[in-house]
Design a protein that fits this description.
This protein is of the alpha+beta class and 265 residues long. The model has no long low-confidence stretch (mean pLDDT 97). It is 21% helix and 26% strand. It has a single domain (20-260), classed as CNF1/YfiH-like putative cysteine hydrolases (4-Layer Sandwich). The strands form 3 sheets. Strands 1-2-3-15-7-4 form a 6-stranded mixed beta sheet. The protein starts with a strand and ends in a 6-residue tail after the last strand. The protein has helices spanning 51-65, 138-142, 145-157, 181-191, 210-220, and strands at residues 2-6, 9-13, 22-27, 72-73, 83-85, 101-104, 110-115, 119-125, 130-136, 165-168, 178-179, 199-202, 205-208, 225-228, 253-259. Bound molecules: zinc ion (ZN). Zinc ion binds at residues 173, 175-176, 232, 234-235.
């Protein structure tokens, strides 16, 4: 990924996403208004941080991303597989819908999600002009949410998976994410023998490679262009929030994506 700075905020961009077609950014925790465990650019409104700081952080993020704050569309991320399409921003009085995949083909909408170890998946269809953003924790990964998201784009936008770009964003890596034997058993039930490659053992502990599992699901769905950020949240607390490493007492960083208007083509 490319590292960028704007207005005191630091973010990363996938090299494979054309910046003349798509606005997108994976924001680090730097440059926000929050303090303490939430320092500094916390986007999570339900993690114990001051609400006014979180709103200010959202405003700073949208400004740095070059997107209108009023264009945002977000959901209540619940570790499921519900996919939601929206052709308009979420209005102030509209409640968050529970979902873990959001999509739009309207350049006036900016998709935003919050993360702290879970895997952000960004999707772009350059032919049918559509974008998607997916929240894949271990549960969503187990439910093959990457594959389901591609299927959704195929149905909704007539996307050909062979044309899609998929980015696997900063999240906890396969050397840091310790899980129980019960998790492996569930993965082997779903992914059968192929699931074995997602796990490794070290000093009697078991680790799950969420990046590998999500790349597998995306490839299964027919995606050929997959870019891995290779950035581990748990190993880089200066830039990222890590729910696991910080023992649940932390913020959420933001990932945004939106189409540019066609005249910018
Ligand atoms: Zn790691």
């Amino acid at each position: 990924m490319n590292r960028c700075e704007a207005n005191g905020l630091r973010y990363y961009q996938f090299e494979g996403l054309p910046t003349d077609q798509v606005d997108h950014a994976v924001f680090t925790r730097l440059g926000g208004a929050s303090s303490g465990a939430y320092s500094a650019l916390n986007l999570g409104g339900t993690v114990g941080d001051k609400p006014e700081a979180v709103v200010e952080n959202h405003r700073r993020l949208f400004k740095a991303a070059g997107r209108d704050y009023e264009s945002r569309f977000d959901v209540w991320q619940v570790h499921g597989t519900t996919m939601v399409y929206s052709d308009q921003p979420r209005s102030q009085d509209q409640k968050h819908q529970p979902a873990d995949g959001i999509f739009t083909d309207n350049p006036d909408v900016t998709l935003i999600m919050r993360f702290a170890d879970c895997v952000p998946l960004v999707l772009y269809d350059p032919v049918n002009r559509a974008v998607g953003l997916v929240h894949a924790g271990w549960q969503g990964t187990l439910l093959r949410i990457g594959e389901l998201a591609v299927d959704y784009m195929r149905e909704r936008f007539n996307s050909d998976p062979a044309n899609l770009f998929a980015g696997i964003g900063p999240s906890i890596c396969g050397s840091c994410y310790e899980v129980g034997e019960d998790v492996r058993e569930r993965f082997l039930k779903t992914f059968e023998a192929d699931g074995r490659s997602f796990f490794s053992e070290r000093n009697g502990s078991l680790y799950l490679d969420l990046w590998g599992a999500n790349a597998y699901s995306l490839r299964k769905a027919g995606v050929r262009q997959i870019e891995q950020s290779g950035l581990c949240t748990a190993e880089n607390l200066d830039e990222w929030y890590s729910y696991r490493k910080e023992k649940g007492f932390t913020g959420r960083f933001g990932v945004v994506i939106g189409l540019k208007h066609a005249e910018h083509k």
